[in-house]
Amino acid sequence: MSYQKEKEAESISGKVALEEKALANGGPHLTNYNLMTDSPVPTSKEKEAAEYEGGDENTERGNWSNHMDFLLSCVSYAVGLGNVWRFPYLCYSNGGGAFLIPYTIMLFFAGMPLFFLELSFGQYSSRGPISVWQSVPLLRGVGYGMVVTSGIVAIYYNVIITYCIFYMFKSMTSSLPWVGCDHSWNTEYCSELVTDCLTQGGIVTENNACIAVGNLSDSERTQYNVTTDGNIDLYMDPLHAQRSRPSEEFYRHGVLADSGDALNFGYIVWQLALCLLLAWTIVCISLAKGVKSSGKVVYFTAIFPYIVLTILLVRGLTLEGSWDGILFFITPRFELLANPKVWKDAAVQIFFSLSASWGGLITLSSYNKFHNNCMRDAIIVPILNCATSIFAGFVIFSIMGFMAHTLDKEVKDVVQEQFGLAFIAYPEAVAQLPISPLWAFLFFFMLITLGFGSQICIVETVVTSITDELPRRLRKWKPLVLFVYCAFAFCVGLLCVTQAGNYWVVLMDKYAADFSLLIFGLSECIALGWLYGSKKFINDIRTMVGDRIVDAKAFLWWPINWCALTPAVLSFVLFFSWMSWDFPMAGDYVYPPVCHVFGWFLVVLSLVWIPAVMIYEVGYRATGSFTERLREAVSSRESWGPDLPEHRREAVDTHKANGTEFPGNPSYKSTNGLEMQNMSTIQSV
To answer: At 176, phi and psi to the nearest 5?
Structure first.
């Protein structure tokens, strides 16, 4: 050994000895000194003060450039298409303004607790939704299930965005294509043919022929309630039940080229295929540099929808009949609160609108700086999400009220659910406005930005989970992993832009993201509240946000929910969903049995990981008696804990000072940390 190496080893060994002595005496860590370069290293408080002013804490994995990137990403992820087309329909059909009572209660008992749990879970460990389960290996299958579910949802969710892109392009015209019955996709039963016939002084007969009133025989006048002087006030279209609106025919035939059968795939609609390619290209480009690029995209996808919603609301309130629609939306019908279904719908809407248990919140928070106040974020984002849903309801129903007034109908007769609201009812309402192409363009461009905001986070969840499982091999190839997944999802998505594609989009939406997510959420509460231990989890949070927040009496609200109230709510929703479950339909279309077999295959594909991993952890990986195997399976792995050495040391001290034992190995060497480099040098010397 050379003299220089001897001096280096002596210097390093001396400093390690000093730290060990300081620890033994209860003194501070010698963490503000780099053992390799004899240069000062910022303390944790100094890092916290400069948390969002400079580079990454975790140079290997990366962090958000600043806190606003993360906050807007959460808003963009949580506020999606469902806020615009699902919540307003649920609200009016479940008691109007009275629905806000169970909706708010479920926000505080189910939505916010799960939101905070997942943000804390990911931020503490800097890991994705699979690797984070080193905390409770027995339930690592929950992480796999989340990723599989996100991977499936991303495929059909981008198809819905594809529809919006197609509509946006079709809005770039002086005359909207879903107006009138003179297009190639219109059928002989288009409803405006009757209106045109009546305008020209005729009526439509049971043979669907337009005959001038003056040419009717006496028997025909009697049959169609036409008076001898030509009055047609009592006339009723004999084919009324078979009529379809122009906007519906455009959606079914002009966009989807609907074959009428889920098993009759026909051909790929090339216009939709090109829009789908564009959608996946945008997602791929947005995530090319991970959170560094997606964190900038969300400034647009999170903020722009609010600008458009405000513009549409102001325009809507100036229209005649708009207040009828708004009153229909908010008028409370308290008697409906006695129906358990209303409470179930409120819980499901809160759960799904906040995107809990998809793995996305864990992924987003895993890129946070360690000392970020995630509790503040867990309050801001859910409240903003719910306020957005209510705001969107005012926008939608102000336009629906105008449409009902124009068509001389009740508001309830023009409102439809989800796809029908976005692609049939609302486009038809917009067509009644002056400069209708402008409003149509803004509306669909808003839906596109809402969709991409969620889609980007869903895809990031899948890609991050894959690279976190094999960090040494795949992390440097993350852009390639992203490209491969996007290419795969595009190829599978082509099946959803065939003539039968929409039936499969609806089917996947009904099965893939249904009660499996409720099971994931329930498993998270059981895992962290009971198996890992709520006290340990609280001290994990204490390490990140400090004593002042965690020791406040109001903080008790969170563990009470994690351990008891939230699992009770999710169990109720699961039980009620199973008891009232029926085979899903696409409107009036009844799926053949093979489609339901495929749907249940998607459910099994998401949930099978939970028992499979349990069997592996207890039956194969653990050793000893069954009790010993089970204890080992619920015990945290050595690698569990903060990713960086300085944060791991903070966590060890925090647990020790607050009566719990650090669940991981305090001496575990992270490949990302300076400590790993120092220890390797000592060994080599």
So the answer is: -65, 135
